[in-house]
């Protein structure tokens, strides 16, 4: 059955393209945060280990929400490492940095995801897609808040 939600196909595809970038950023940030959770050491171990766990769990749920929104727009969501690698703006970390660098990289990652979310909201607004704009506004706020909380550890 054809989709008829009041948004033209080309507009749904444009929104989904931006959502796919947000999904890739979210999933890449999830992987980085989970890796840091496993590998953090130092005097802040206990608090960072717990904080990273809370953050990667939130990102896991967010990835599902973003992917399901793409599908709601009747577009297939990316779902492979290679697709995410092409779409994300999050820098990969192949090693195990010190805890301060971990925190700094996560601040940067959340700020990148916030910028991607902000751009996605603009495209959604232009398409008259209030559902996507609302969902992504929540994501934007979460990325900004998490970046602030992480940044406070470095002062």
UniProtKB/TrEMBL annotation:
It holds the Pfam family Ferritin. Transmembrane segments: none annotated. It comes from the Bacteria. One of its GO terms (molecular function) is ferric iron binding. CDD domains: DPS. InterPro entries: DPS_DNA-bd (IPR002177), DPS_DNA-bd_CS (IPR023188), Ferritin-like (IPR012347), Ferritin-like_SF (IPR009078), Ferritin_DPS_dom (IPR008331). Residues 17-154 form the Ferritin/DPS domain. Belongs to the Dps family. This is Ferritin, Dps family protein. The lineage of its organism: Bacteria, Pseudomonadati, Pseudomonadota, Gammaproteobacteria, Lysobacterales.
């Amino acid at each position: 059955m054809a989709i008829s939600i009041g948004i033209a196909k080309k507009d749904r595809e444009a929104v989904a393209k931006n959502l796919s970038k947000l999904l890739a950023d979210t999933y890449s940030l999830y992987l980085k945060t989970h890796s840091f959770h496993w590998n953090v050491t130092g005097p802040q171990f206990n608090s960072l280990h717990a904080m990273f766990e809370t953050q990667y769990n939130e990102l896991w749920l967010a990835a599902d929400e973003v992917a399901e929104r793409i599908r709601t727009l009747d577009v297939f969501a990316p779902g492979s490492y290679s697709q995410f690698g092409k779409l994300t703006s999050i820098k990969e970390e192949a090693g195990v940095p010190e805890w301060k660098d971990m925190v700094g990289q996560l601040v940067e990652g959340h700020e990148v995801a916030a910028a991607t979310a902000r751009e996605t909201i603009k495209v959604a607004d232009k398409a008259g897609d209030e559902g996507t704009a609302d969902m992504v506004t929540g994501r934007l706020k979460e990325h900004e808040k998490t970046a602030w909380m992480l940044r406070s550890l470095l002062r």
